[in-house]
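Sample intake sheet
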Amino acid sequence: MSKIFISYRRDDSAAYAGRLYDRLVSHFGRGHVFMDIDQIEPGEVFDQVIKDKLAAVQVAVVLIGERWLDIADASGQRRLDNPDDWVRLEITTLLERNIRVIPVLVGGATMPKPTQLPECMIPLIRRHALEIASHPRFHTDADKLIKALEKIVGALSLETPKIPEKPGKPSYLRFAVIAGVIGITLITGGYLIVMPPKTIPIQPVDTLKPWNGIIEQIGMDGMAVRNKTTPTQALIAEQLQQATPDPVVQPVTEQSKVSVIEPKMVRIPPGKFLMGSPGTELGRESNESPQHEVSIAYAFEIGQYEVTFDEYDAFAKYTQRILPHDQGWGRGRRPVINVSFDDAQAYVRWLSDQTGKSYRLPTEAEWEYAARAGTQTRYWWGDEIGHNNANCDGCRSEWGGKQTAPVGSFEANALGLHDTAGNVWEWMQDCWHDHYDNMPTDGSAWLKKEGGDCARRVARGGSWFNSPLGLRSANRGGDGGWAGELLGFRIARDF
């Protein structure tokens, strides 16, 4: 039964709620955190489920944004003044149980005054509040909340989400894996060409050295970028190592006999698009602004699918790397996971060496241009998450919230790309920036200029574990480059 309850008002703090839910679940485990409607199964009685959850939780987190007090219903009445308002009912019930209720102020909100609340909710203002800001303080502030929750639910172990070692057999297969070759389609004045896979015999190369904490990699600008392990990174690495099953070790006595498997590529024509999200988009984050026009004057190619275990394992076996763990979900056509930013860079360098072609990671602008495929909606298929459009926790697919799906299990966007929303986060070439101020508008990678943090790399697309908010075309993630079961990558190619 869930021990932590997140109360929020969707029109006020949905974006913060989604991010905080993902963070708490990754720390405490999915079964211990409840965030209302996204976790209610179809056909269940909403109010009964909420009442059952409220009666069982040990601690509640109440998110209060700038509009929390004043949001009104269709008649103009303030929602908090309605005795049947669900947020009011949730908080009142939790306060009456006399459990720990933590007000969390988000988006610059301040604690309400007694005169601004219904009498039944006034005890809330006597509770000590925490504040959670957006980037760059979000993770630091969330850590403070996690420490407080650990003390309250002391019996909770720090567990990773419960994942079966072997996935059960699906009760049905709603959509078959999309197969075949996509023909030539007229797209925005150019042509989309799906390049068929090609198997090429490998020529011997020097074995790559395992990562030792100091990596020299070549950035998009041709300059060497040296990343050193900081104490914070070392701590994160230790935690991830504890949370991730041991990888599969390959024998090093004899070089494996494998062939390069070139991922299928899609040619993307030149064009313009609006990058980022408008201020009116539900769930938007401040790091998605300012929305700005990007003009990509060149054609490029991008992977039709995320790189699969089949494709990555060929590289790992030949170079005698440790195979990344598959979490017991299977390898083959599933997207490779448990690969770091440096692993992805090593793969594209190796693939380029073996084929004589210029493979690389996509830039953030190229990725969003290709993922949107001419749209400006929250998702490439529209503004609502819908049913079985992607793999996420709340997308209503057979894999959602459980594990990765084989690539191509969902419909492609208008450019023929699969899984740009959900399944796994995808590494970008760019360094992390908290905003788009002075970002290049030509599609190139944004590295150290304008305060870029190259110890963190951009990841895009969301994953099987994220809520639907994490799958929006404009949504951005930043990570220290570490490996995990939520992270994979897609490749790009110059020609």
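Comment: The chain is about 20% helix and 20% strand. The radius of gyration is 23 Å.
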